[in-house]
Amino acid sequence: MYLIISGTNRKGSYTLRVAELYQSLLKGKNIDAHILSLVDLNVLERNPAIVQLEQEWLIPSKKFVFISPEYNGSIPGVLKCLIDISDIEKVWYEKKALLTGLSRGRAGNLRGMDHLTGILHYVRTTVHPNKLPISIVDTLFDNGGMRHAGTLKSIDAQLDEFIAF
């Protein structure tokens, strides 16, 4: 089972739009993937909603796709808190992850993906080596969705590699 994690709690973000794009592309490859949005999710304490989320989505998932925006040269705190508050062994051990970083700037959250890689390695999740930085994300969409052909091609290739991983 694949789970796409939209790694921010900001409403109306490009992160969720990119997560939906990944979901659509996976569906075109005959893979059903659920999106976990962190909007309105309380990750500051272990609560019944977190336990239910683990049971329903996190524990059964074998592969995770992280879409993470750049926050101050790293990942959003809400994403780190999700990992910290979860049952590490049941949720993350021996699983696989694909990382995509987003930014409005020119680096596509390269540093944040390195930070997230270190965190995921610590919780024994294997990270696919093709980590995709998507820069100037705010210029890549129009009303019809992603309009940048090069980025779409890169995402498609990244997903093909992850499926085989």
What does it look like?
With 165 residues, this protein is of the alpha/beta class. The protein has one domain (2-164): Flavodoxin domain (Rossmann fold). The chain is 41% helix and 20% strand. It is built from 6 helices and 8 strands, in the order βαβαβααβαββββα. It has helices at residues 14-28, 48-58, 77-85, 88-91, 110-122, 149-164, and strands at residues 2-6, 33-37, 63-69, 96-102, 126-127, 132-134, 141-142, 145-146. Strands 1, 2, 3, 4, 5 and 6 form a 6-stranded parallel beta sheet that branches. The chain has a two-stranded antiparallel sheet with strand order 7-8. Strand 1 (2-6), helix 1 (14-28) and strand 2 (33-37) form a beta-alpha-beta unit. It is globular, with a radius of gyration of 15 Å. The two termini are 14 Å apart. The mean pLDDT is 96.
CATH class: Alpha Beta
Secondary structure category: alpha/beta
CATH architecture: 3-Layer(aba) Sandwich
Strand content: 15-25%
- Determine the CATH topology: Rossmann fold
Helix content: 40-55%
Biggest sheet architecture: 6 strands, parallel
The number of helical segments is 6
CATH level-four homologous superfamily name:
Flavodoxin domain
How many structural domains does the protein architecture include? 1
Q: What form results from the Cα inertia axes?
A: globular
Helix/strand order? EHEHEHHEHEEEEH
Whole-number radius of gyration? 15 Å
Query: How many β-strands, per DSSP?
Result: 8
Uncertain runs: none
Give average pLDDT, whole number.
96
N-end to C-end Cα span: 14 Å
